[in-house]
Specification:
Distance between the termini: 79 Å
Order of helices and strands: EHHEHHEHEHHHEHHHHHHH
Low-confidence stretches: 352-362
Number of helices: 15
Shape: globular
Largest sheet: 5 strands, parallel
Helix content: 40-55%
Structural class: alpha/beta
Radius of gyration: 23 Å
Number of strands: 5
Strand content: 5-15%
């Protein structure tokens, strides 16, 4: 069995990839291969995704579906899994190329989905953290909710059109609906392996991975990237912001985003993730999600749990739109100063700076 995990994004993919990459040796002993090829020391098979998507940066020398299958046959492993969220974007032609490459190997598509009322705010947090969204949540929501990919029935259907509905494994990211309450044992069950068996006792299961920081961190970072920080030009963060491009791989903004999240923990800011959705936004998310689940259940061998009607839920809507202006100015500036110190390793001493200004003015 050759399992292809395609996400979906913000549906615990990072945790699953950490589980498989961190336990690669132990998994081999129970007959499951998580190939090194196509990920080059990283956790996800993004190089394989580039090959499937026909990207010009793909390089067969760094790993391909063909080489992975050949390696599995030579080593005697009959089960393997590759994982990359980027595969979610594959169109019909790309999926057909992947199917053709598998030749006689059975291909199973693994998809994890998540309630949109939690997924959309999580997606906002991810993009804000790394400078890929400068809009407030309401503007982000209006754009995100209109995207075709938000209706995961269409994504799953696109893959099912080539691999067939019997080979689709769609699971809901929720402890109540996962084997032993976690995605790791759920993924193992796809291979017919019981995660509670003694053979799996040495497998380590990671904790929460890629968790969204608190709302204060997000809004402080968004204001920073968007030029609404109010910092003087000599502040150590300003040169970093000027040199950053805001692209997905930009190292400057990733360092700032990750460091900000770390400081959020030390300040206690991450304890309050805030509420971003209005009641109407939450209702729209609920309707779209339920419609997709009902549509999928007409085709899936293992149907998903149908969520209740939104009117039957006591959804906690937001009390205010999170924004950096909701953070006391002194608290926000203190955060920026500490962030600048950590990122640049340059101590900021406001009292000394003020003394120099007083001497110059006198």
């Amino acid at each position: 069995m050759f399992v292809i995990h395609i996400g979906l994004p913000k549906c615990a993919s990072a945790a699953l990839q950490e589980f498989f990459s961190g336990n690669a040796e132990s998994l081999r002993r129970i007959g499951i291969e998580y190939p090194q090829e196509g990920r080059q020391g990283r956790k996800a098979h993004n190089l394989i995704a580039l090959e499937v998507l026909g990207h010009r940066k793909s390089d067969a020398l760094l790993g391909s579906i063909t080489s992975i299958l050949s390696g599995c046959r030579q080593s005697g492993y009959h089960s393997a899994i590759i994982s990359s969220e980027a595969l979610e974007r594959a169109d019909g032609a790309a999926i057909s190329r992947l199917k053709a490459a598998l030749t006689e190997q059975e291909g199973v598509i693994l998809v994890f989905v998540r309630e949109l009322t939690s997924l959309v705010p999580s997606s906002y947090a991810q993009k804000v953290r790394y400078g890929r969204n400068l809009y407030d949540f309401d503007e982000f929501f209006e754009s995100r909710i209109r995207e075709t990919r938000i209706d995961f029935f269409k994504t799953v259907s696109r893959w099912a059109a080539t691999f067939g509905w019997p080979n689709m494994r769609v699971r809901l990211v929720h402890p109540d609906h996962l084997v032993n309450g976690n995605i790791f044992d759920e993924a193992l069950a796809i291979f017919g392996v019981d995660g509670a068996d003694e053979a799996c006792s040495e497998l380590t299961r990671p904790g929460n991975v890629n968790v969204s920081p608190g709302w204060k961190v997000l809004e402080a970072v968004r204001a920073l990237y968007g030029g609404k920080h109010g910092l003087p030009q000599k502040h150590p963060l300003v040169p970093i912001l000027k040199s950053a491009t805001g692209r997905r791989s930009d190292p400057g903004w990733r360092v700032v985003g990750n460091t900000a999240a770390m400081l959020g923990s030390t300040r206690g800011w991450n304890d309050d993730r805030g509420r971003y959705l209005t009641l109407e936004q939450a209702r729209e998310c609920s309707v779209i999600f339920k419609r997709a689940v009902v549509a999928l259940n007409d085709h899936l061998t293992d149907p998903l749990p149908v969520p209740p009607d939104f009117n039957d839920l006591a959804f906690p809507a937001r009390e205010f739109l999170p924004d950096h202006t909701q953070i006391p100015a002194q608290e926000l500036r203190s955060f920026y100063d500490e962030l600048g110190e950590v990122v640049t390793n340059r101590p900021i001493n406001p009292s000394r700076r003020n003394k120099r200004r007083l001497r110059r003015s006198s």
